[in-house]
Amino acid sequence: MAGFRSLARQVRDPRSDLALRRYSLRKCLERFAPYGHRATWDHLCSRAGFGPEDRSPDPARLVAALDELEEARSVWLAYEDAFAERRRKEKHDGLRRPGSVDDWHRLTWGGFGVAWCDDPRVHPDEPLAEVLRRLIAALEREPGSVCPACSGERLTWKYDLAHEPSSGPVCTSCGIVVPRPVLTPEALAEARRGRMLVSV
Question: 86-130: per-residue pLDDT in tens?
Fold first, then answer.
């Protein structure tokens, strides 16, 4: 099975058939898809300017979509490296019990669904790398009451999500399932009650 970098080379190869290049970009999302496969594909198509069902998109647009995906992947891999190093140091220092960020991180190792969007048509508009930088910054500071991706103040609790965890706070502005560790207990309780969160 081809890895991400091998698939990326196929997307960039001007000698390859256009259908194979498009297919290879879709296959990249099996290795790294921050919003989930369908939502990340919809996001990349929208940002690069071709339709999700377009079978023969402009090759330059395919490469632009890949560039955005690769930048986001490098941001996430750097975070995972730092995370792994921190956990090694904590274990060396005798801290064996992981925290809530660690529990969340285990569900997203590799970058699949780190900012899960249950509705594939509703996702942040900003570049993937920028959204991931905001998410990582939120994971590294004290919990707050707003969406880390867009600073949206309205979160609502949704059940039967198509990803683990199967329920959680969803930003009504950008559509991501907000990681629980970035929210205060009060913000989580408000989202569960179905009320709109407004920061003061």
Answer: 777 877 777 666 566 667 777 777 788 999 999 999 999 999 999
Which is nearest to 126 in space by CA: 147, 96, 103?
147
Please state the three-class secondary structure of 24-40 as a single string: HHHHHCCCCCCCCHHHH
The tokens 């930048």 sit on which residue?
A: 71
**Looking at the 3D structure of the chain, how many domains does it have?**
1
For residue 200, being part of any structural domain is answered with no
pTM > 0.85: yes or no: yes
Q: Residue 125: which domain range? A: 4-108+116-194
What lies within 8 Å, CB to CB, of 6 at 6+ separation is none
pLDDT one-digit tens code per residue, 18-27:
999 999 999 9
Residue 35 placed within a domain: yes
3-state secondary structure of 151: coil
